[in-house]
Amino acid sequence: xxxxxxxxxxxxxxxxxxxxxxxxxxxxxxxxxxxxxxxxxxxxxxxxxxxxxxxxxxxxxxxxxxxxxxxxxxxxxxxxxxxxxxxxxxxxxxxxxxxxxxxxxxxxxxxxxxxxxxxxxxxxxxxxxxxxxxxxxxxxxxxxxxxxxxxxxxxxxxxxxxxxxxxxxxxxxxxxxxxxxxxxxxxxxxxxxxxxxxxxxxxxxxxxxxxxxxxxxxxxxxxxxxxxxxxxxxxxxxxxxxxxxxxxxxxxxxxxxxxxxxxxxxxxxxxxxxxxxxxxxxxxxxxxxxxxxxxxxxxxxxxxxxxxxxxxxxxxxxxxxxxxxxxxxxxxxxxxxxxxxxxxxxxxxxxxxxxxxxxxxxxxxxxxxxxxxxxxxxxxxxxxxxxxxxxxxxxxxxxxxxxxxxxxxxxxxxxxxxxxxxxxxxxxxxxxxxxxxxxxxxxxxxxxxxxxxxxxxxxxxxxxxxxxx
Length: 469
Fold this sequence. Notes:
469 residues, Thrombin, subunit H, Pdz3 Domain, 7-stranded antiparallel β-sheet, 28 strands
């Protein structure tokens, strides 16, 4: 018994000694190793902040905006007479069959006396336009004017009482992420309201840098064209115009003409009968990192000036090749669509303050007086511009436009007749030409099969008459 107790005592004592040795020598080293591992951790920084969702009281409320706008958006019906398929009888009797074609879209009442804005493509070619208001009254509409470039048209109806209308908002102040409503008549479903946000600004869908749309994800479908894009206050910030889709229906992207451009177009039509465009007088390219390195500039955003038009406002203000336009007034310019969009709201003789980066030094602000368009591209001829006093005096002329760049395809033919850059076109189809706008109208209004007749003073001062078919 004593022997057994001695064994138990010795075993317990051995366990205590072993445990003490482990705690003293081994566990201490292990603790040190763990500490070092924590110091060399490769975890990425992570935010554990909880994002609070909107509660019901904070959610955007579109009820008031919808109520303010839905009665001012109308259904537009376009009736056109078009050529039908040619039949055997048509060929035998030398006739062409006609048929009636009906198109529909939307429009926005912008004044209590019945002025309505819509898209040009909604009413293009119409022989008759009818308007149905939200209270089911039907009116015949008069076409006041259109602008194909911005796809805007102005209509007028006559009602006995004042009509509900939507006030223009300031599209320049619209923010990406701001809530908007699209109001229109998709698929002939009247008074349809959808909601979304402004996804982007200054969008160009052509790749030719002459559009500057607002992009939104509010659902827009065929029939919405010409309808209203309004902000949460019910103010008009755009005219719904296009969708980007392979199916022809909404897939998440829609585009609207900004309200500042639309308002300027209709005001010009009402006052002048056509659109008055103010021209800055520069050409160039939108910057990115590649072009910034190529041109040796210190910024990858802005519009790089590669050429300045002679006698333009930019020329008079001292803007030169190599300058980078960063702002027009308070509008940031990161690409050409920004510049084009803002200038589309301006008229000749308006003054804009241009912020320039010059020689990679401090920004410089110069005032520029915009001018009327001085150049145009004429078929067969090439680029022409309004002749100044010096150009006309050289040939003792009182009118005409100057050829500044011949069409490369026909340049050899022109030069064989002594007609080069600097020659003066004085008449087209027996109509005097005073400026480029007159020349464009003469050509646009000629019959399809009518030849072109140019009267030109060549480089020797001799008059040449040239016919083209």
